[in-house]
Amino acid sequence: MDPLESLLEGPRARGAFVMRSLLDPPWSLRVRDESPLTVVALVRGSGWVLPDPHSGAGSAESAQLGRVGFPGAGTTAPRQLREGDVAIIRGPDHYTVADDPATAPQVYINPGQITTTPEGEVLCEVWNLGVRGWGPNPDAATMLVTGTYEQESAASRRLLRALPPLIVLPRAELDSPVLDLLVEESAKDRPAQGAMLDRLLDLLLIATLRAWFSRNDAPAWYHAYADPLVGKALRLLQNNPAHPWTVAALATEVGVSRAALARRFTDLVGEPPMAFLTDWRLALAADLLQDSDATVESIARRVGYGSAFALSTAFKRHYGRSPREHRQSGMSAERGTDPLARASSAGH
Q1: Which residues contact 185 (CB under 8 A, 6 or more apart)?
Q2: Cystine design at 168: which of 79, 143, 191, 344 (Cβ 3.0–4.6 Å)?
């Protein structure tokens, strides 16, 4: 599994919110939905994405970003969108999408994708333009297609930590027809259309990130996979998390001294080998708890813990709740009843 594939192993859109917004200048959307990840494509017209001045600062994610050496993770400047450009916005910070940075917000997008005027008037029905279409004018000069991941899976936390608050990829660098397909399918209402849109949104995310990660502005640790020593160590840890790894055993497999591997791994990845392994094991365990009926004991052994008790202790220390509570929250989130899930995704 290559490094980008391992990062993208987690995100799987499930009932993602997909919408075409049709707007005439001047327009400005203030987004406060606090979703973990959003993809915005400018199909026609032009615009700007304006993160809040504090975007990315003060969160656990930003602390990790700083530790892995991503430049400028704490602040993000406004970025212009031209026709065909794709933006990826990492939540939960608020941001604005507008025709011009000086345009005051005219619409607020709140948790649950509820849209209102600044005065609180609900616009969802007033601006309804049919199947996944929204705006005051169906022939507007600007069309945005937005795909929102409203829930965060545990394994995708590593991806979210890998991303800056905002990525803008020019259309010329998106070597894929998937954006055109998503636009076309977003206007259809057919059986299993939600599943179709989920998969197309996943593909657009992957195509955009694949292009972005190949650029020089990708985080430095990403290139650690190309290092002959650290890259091999990363693959050994990820592909066999159940193995009783130690730094010494990993160094023997890679063919260097323990001290040399620990120093080089930390420099390139941003954390020591065993810290990386712990995070990876717990992320896998979190997904298995919510995506399978396996017992905590069997999951523990599958991800490298000797017993259910050992996994439970590490899991609660890392996530703040037990494996059992985590599994129950996932079941409740699918029914829309989990208060922890609602808090983490701001009501979605």
Answers
A1: 193, 196, 197, 200
A2: 79
Rg of the chain over all Cα atoms, to the nearest angstrom: 21
On the question of pLDDT at 153 being above 90, the answer is: no
Coil, strand or helix at 104: coil
Write the CA distances from 125 to 56, 146, 194, integer angstroms.
Answer: 33, 18, 20
Distance between CA atoms of 246 and 258, rounded to whole angstroms?
A: 9
Give the chain's length. Answer: 348
Predicted model pTM: 0.71
How does residue 57 score in pLDDT terms, banded at 50, 70 and 90? very low
Q: Count the helices and strands in the chain (H runs, E runs).
A: 13, 12
The whole-angstrom separation of Cα 157 and Cα 289 is 16
* Residue type at 294 in one-letter notation: A
- Dump pLDDT digits (tens) for 186-198: 988 888 888 889 8
Count CB-CB contacts under 10 A for residue 104: 10
CA dihedral 268→273→276→282, nearest 10 degrees, is 170
- On the question of a cis peptide bond just before residue 164, with omega within 30 degrees of 0, the verdict is no
Core vs surface per residue 74-93: b (16+ CB within 10 A) or e: bebeeeebeebbbbbbbbbb
